[in-house]
Design goal:
Largest sheet: 6 strands, parallel
Structural class: alpha/beta
Strand content: 5-15%
Shape: elongated
Radius of gyration: 37 Å
Strand order of the largest sheet: 7-6-5-8-9-10
Length: 648
Amino acid sequence: MKHKPHRPAGKSPVKPGSLGQSDTPDALCAAAFRLLRAGQLPQAEDACRRALTLDAASIDALQAMGQVCLALKRADDAIEWFARAIRQDITRASSFVGLAQALRLAGRLDEAIKAYDRALQLQPDSADSWDALGELLQLTGRHEEAALACDRLLQLAPDHVPAWFRLGEVLEAQGRRNEAALAFDQVVKFKPDQIEAANKAGAVHFDAGRYDEAIARFDQSLKQQPDQAGVLCLKGISLRRLRRYGEAQVSGQRAHVLAPHDPDIANSYGCILQNLGRHDEAVAVFDKAIAIRPQTAEFYNHRGTSLAELHRFDEAFASFDRAVALKPDLADAHWNAALFRLLTGDFAQGWAAREWGRKCRAVGFVERSFDAPMWLADAPLAGKTILLHSDEGLGDTIQFARYAVMVAAEGARVVLEVDAPLQPLLAGLEGVMECLARGVDPIPAIDYHCPLSSLPLAFATCLNTIPASPCYLPRPAAERLALWGRRLGPHHSLRVGLVWSGNPVHLNDHNRSMPLAMLAPLLDVGAQFVSLQKDARPADKALLAERNEILDLTGDIRDFVDTAALIDNLDLVITVDTSVAHLAGALGKPTWIMLPYTPDYRWLLDREDSPWYPSVRLFRQDERRDYGDVVARVRDALARQIEGFAAS
């Protein structure tokens, strides 16, 4: 390395006056650092050279020269100066820190990490070195080590905001999302106006499905900067997933206004409108997204769903077909198309496409794996044992359990496995040799298996071949029937069971269920009303306690056999689309089902009867989607029913 000659003493930037007492190596080093801090780099370098002329082994001077070279971006020179300092004294941590900084400047990151390691061996409580090491480890993708460095730094400096931020990033990179969220939350705690940290914390909470926490972080960010379209979009999606659709619409619409040419934001807003039942608007928004990016299959799938909800089925199927053409393995598009094909009576295509639901995350099929092959009427069953197992909800199980007798007729020994609450009810089902409670009873050796909901496909069921026995469930024991008869008391008036809401976690619950108050117009017609509503919602419980027209014995119901025995003692069941509708229909009890404008596929369209349940009568919403009109029609029909009962 070449050394520049000394400048004349009179031109020295430190103005010592002369080469006297103040021109010592220590004084010159001190002057060099003052000049370095002032940005006077040539003068600082000159002071360092003068100090080294006086004492070539001065570690302070060697380090000062290294720092000056760092400031001048002369990485190789800096490396040499710090290396000289280390050769003079290998116990000085500051020399290794300087060397690490110079190696990083030169792009030699792995060597820089080693230098920091050595510095920290000598000075383990240096927060600055842990900070720099953590940053380098993150840059080189060594995230696990970076997290450890951040942890050590935060032990020394718990309020070190950049360290919390870096910890969050490296934990996120490792897939440790819960820990990452906590780290980003700490950033926001110490610095509430840190927009990036709030957004990252929100995004991590969002990805982990912690939507309330995500919304809180997004709100902190939006408070600082309200017009962030992407953050508003994520907040809207979070609110949508919490089923807070009204609030979601506000965020989604604002995001769409701010970023009208972002197709993903448009698509997200369309999905919110879809949940609100505003399908005309949703279709228009999906059309915008498609116009911007026409090759995205998901947009056509969502558009198809809204078109189907509007009963524009030809357009809907064309949209689903386009989605599948663009992305043949898009399970959601196959599934949605299948449901609407079944709804419109196209069983030939519908049952086969419905199997795609097993690949949809949101559908909720109970997936099982067995060593035995799945049977779809593709092998003889004579002398074989087959397991028929429930794979959807309780109502679906009741509906499709009717196929057990058909499987038995193939010569098979039928083992039925269902959810534990249904096991006592279905244990005596015709054709079933053994009925097991899933997760409780061990499964015997089997030759084949078939999910219950795949049996219509196996038997190529069409409208004319639905196995519609008037009553295919075993009747409860006589003593159980008598017990519920005594609980109901004298049978002087028409006994009517009521169910007004289904499972609140069902994705379509907001369309299927209604508050008990909506049934109030029925209660003055002169019938004995009996609640069949398990797990009533708080507002309904309060009203139920006030209305003495409804007898509530649900606290005595222990299982589905009790419900069946209670239904057997009634004259009529009026219900929304729940498992009780299937139970009452399968028992052959006269059952009136109140349905939304676009009902579940099994209820079909434009008919008052059900090919699945001969005793069922359907009361449908019209295009106004108003249950008030449905209840009014039910009331009129009920009044006529009561007149007939009185006349008898």
